[in-house]
Amino acid sequence: MTTHAPSGPLTATGPRVEPKARSFVRLGKLDVYDYYPSILVALAAVALPWARFEAAAGWTMALFLLGEVFVVMSMVALDDVTGYRDGSDAANYGPNDPLRRKLRKPLIAGTLSQREALGFAWATAAVGAALWTGTVALAPHRPGWTLVLVPVLFVVSLQYSYGLKISYHGFQEVFLVGLGVALVLAPYGLVAGHFSGFVLVAGVLFGAGPLLFGVYSNTNDIPGDRAVGRPTVACLVGPRGNAAFIGALSAAEFLLGAAASATGVAPWWFVVLMLPVTALRARQYVTGFRGEGDIMRARRQGFVVHRVSTVLLIAAGLLHGAEVAA
């Protein structure tokens, strides 16, 4: 199904004009920054001892982050183009939704055309590719696995809902975690020069954040996703099955940290440090699936949980680095 944007941007009282720059910022979702702190998780894992942290390492981290911003902007812009073309955004941001929500989707609001959105997506992708190429060239280390990971990360990111449409073939949840993992591991490898099981665990826990507000969004978006054949878990199973799936993901987040501490992949104190995340995750689940069952409030809580988790992962990286350096 293909939908068409209204003839002009609308408000509750009639046409309005929004500056193009503002619409492009909305298209790039710069206010949703929860993947970008991945660079701080990676940085914390290599920063100590500080005396050995080279200027090239700092530039590598900075360039990678800048490239990440452009690549993610391209990814979400292409997602909006696909959602506009297949009608899923029209269903999820329908006539009964507040205008402020519609404006977050410039194609639905009519503040940008498809041509403008695609131009923005490919321009930001090109800039992101150039920045990541420069990152690899400047990096103090280039282990073979990073030379594979960085280009794969770039290509796969753009296929989320465009091109191969990964999220339309049952892999959305895996993608959300995998993106977070790669965004932590890639810059870490380019600076540290080696693989780390501890950083892998940190990357998975970082990626669990976007996953565990994404699955609540999917629960809210079931009608639109089903209409276009986007097979999220929420669409494929009943309400009880979806609640069990999200509960299992929430428990797995804690169990991964516990297993890492128990096996020595992470320090013994790691699971204790991350306990506030477990408590907040339980509260999020109760909000979404018990009592009033407020899915969208649970989704908003997920952003808070992810940000708390990110701060604790940064602290864990610094503490672990200090122990190793001592």
Structure overview:
Helix 3 (55-86) runs antiparallel to helix 7 (114-138), helix 8 (144-158) packs antiparallel against helix 9 and helix 10 (197-220) packs antiparallel against helix 16. Strands 1-2 form a two-stranded antiparallel ribbon. Helix content is 71%, strand content 1%. It has helices at residues 20-28, 38-46, 55-86, 88-92, 99-102, 106-109, 114-138, 144-158, 172-192, 197-220, 222-227, 233-236, 239-263, 270-273, 275-289, 295-325, and strands spanning 10-11, 14-15. It has one domain (26-325). By secondary structure, it is mainly α.
Short description:
The protein is mainly alpha-helical and 326 residues long. The chain is 71% helix and 1% strand.
Give the topology string: H per helix, E per strand. Answer: EEHHHHHHHHHHHHHHHH
How far apart the termini lie comes to 61 Å
> What's the total count of β strands?
2
In the sheet with the most strands, the strands line up as 1-2
Largest sheet: 2 strands, antiparallel
* Share in helix: over 70%
Low-confidence parts lasting 5 or more residues at pLDDT below 50? Answer: 1-15
Q: Output mean pLDDT.
A: 89
Give the overall shape.
globular
Total of DSSP H or I helical runs spanning 4+ residues = 16
Q: Roughly what fraction of the amino acids lie in strands? A: under 5%
Number of domains: 1
**For the CA atoms, what is the radius of gyration?**
20 Å
- The helix/strand class is mainly alpha
GO molecular function: prenyltransferase activity
Transmembrane segments: 32-51, 57-78, 117-138, 144-162, 174-191, 197-216, 237-260, 266-282, 303-322
Pathway: Quinol/quinone metabolism; menaquinone biosynthesis
Keywords: Membrane, Menaquinone biosynthesis, Transferase, Transmembrane, Transmembrane helix
